[in-house]
Amino acid sequence: MPDLLLELRSEEIPARMQRKAAGDLKKLLTDALVDAGLTYEGAREYWTPRRLTLDIRGLTARSADTREERKGPRTDAPEKAIEGFLRGAGLTSIDQAEVQNDPKKGDFYVAVIEKPGRAAEEIIAEVMPGIIRNFPWPKSMRSGAASAQPGALRWVRPLQSIVCTFGVENDEVSVIPFEVDGITASNVTYGHRFHAPEPITVKRFDDYVAALEKAKVVLDAERRKEIILQDAKNLAFASGLDLVEDEGLLEEVSGLVEYPNVLMGTFEEEFLDIPDEIIRLTIKTNQKCFVCRKGGENALSNHFILVSNIEAKDGGKEIMHGNGKVVRSRLSDAVHFWKQDQRDLPDLAELKDSAAKFDLDLKKPLDQRMAKLDHLNVTFHAKLGTQGERVARIRALAKELSAITGADPAKVDRAAVLAKADLRTEAVGEFPELQGIMGHKYALLQGEDADVAAALEEHYKPLGPSDSLPTNPVAATVALADKLDTLAGFWAIDEKPTGSKDPYALRRAALGVIRILLEKGNVRLPLLTFAKDADLLSFFHDRLKVYLRDQGARHDIIDAVLTPEADDLLMVARRAEALTAFITSEDGLNLLAGTKRATQLLAAEEKKGTKVAQSADEDLFTEAAERELFKAISLASMEAAEAVKREDFREAMEALSKLRGPVDRFFTDVLVNDEDEAIRANRLALLALIRETTATVADFSKING
Question: What is the value of pTM for the model shown?
Answer without folding.
Answer: 0.79
